[in-house]
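pasting for ref
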Amino acid sequence: MNKIIKDSISIIGGAGHVGFPLGLAFGSKKYKVNLIDTNKKNLNKIKSGLPPFYEIGAKKILKKCLKKKVLFFSNDLKTARKSKFIIICIGTPINKKLKPEIKYFLSLFYKLSKIISKNQILIVRSSVYPGVIKKILTILKKNNNNIVYCPERIVQSKALIELPKLPQVISGFDKKSVKEVSKLFKNICNKIIISSIQEAELIKLFSNANRYINFAIANQLYIMCEKYHVDFDRIRKMMKLGYERNLNLPSSGFTAGPCLLKDTMQLSSFYKGKFDLGSAAMKINESMVDLVIEKVKKIKNYQKKTIGILGVAFKAETDDVRDSLSIELIKKLKKRRYKVLYNDVYHKDPKQHEIKVVIKKSDIIIIGAPHKKYENLKFSKNKSVVDIWGFLKKI
């Protein structure tokens, strides 16, 4: 029998956007953290002291963790055998039909069922729709029923800032396991909320759906303003001025990324496709790409002009381009045979151009992601600028 190390944690998906910062958070509290991931490139970067993606504060904490030798690295699931806690942080994508694709996700637990013992606690941190945690219990029941669901609700690139501030929802089938995991997370979180499994599943998905729908409200207003030639930013400012009930109205822009749409669609699938509000939000948010193209087509001689896109990440202050609507915009423009140049100050891409080159050679400038590093840029009067974010008005 393998000896379980009390203060040891294995994170499956430990080199990813959820697992890596979580590993650093626990490593900084002197836990021994085993980062398990199939992405050898990311693991090697972490080993050398380089965060594999943009994460505020990660480099400094990583350096300390490596110095204290609390981080371990593997691409073999079997190395999780000695850890008291095994945390699952792998993705739960949706397919082309916008349905949850969980076959690969569940296959992981069939593999784990042959590895783990009854003395270990499994913590699921991935986003799953209601009923999935019970399916996992069915898979593991013979060997282990210490399954705890602890959904993450972190804004990407700010995990290390938000982990200590945000309440952690913890749910499980076994009271003892819930108690132990609560004690674990109290090391990195200020507040713990105990819920049922289904409550936790709904909390996670509806938290993202709520944000996705809220962004859609702003984008719907923006679309209306465009139709009637009214200034969206001016209206939004007046709506919020001295009227607290409108303070939650966000700015317009591309609403995308690997979480908001995906989790909204997971919720829709769980609700048998009757989540009308989520479907309407998707239609509005996804239509913003076509709206930008329509704005380009209103520019004189647009077919002969070079289009420059600043920011291809799915949102500001991140290097993540997964499910980015800026990338979708580039694809659609190129399909129409427009000449497109682009730059992103965070995302590394050998095909992109320097900022100065994009600005100099482009006749039309599109703000794809409103990174703060673009704030001081100046455009000559002969440039046409498409800015659905209202970014340039804030400068």
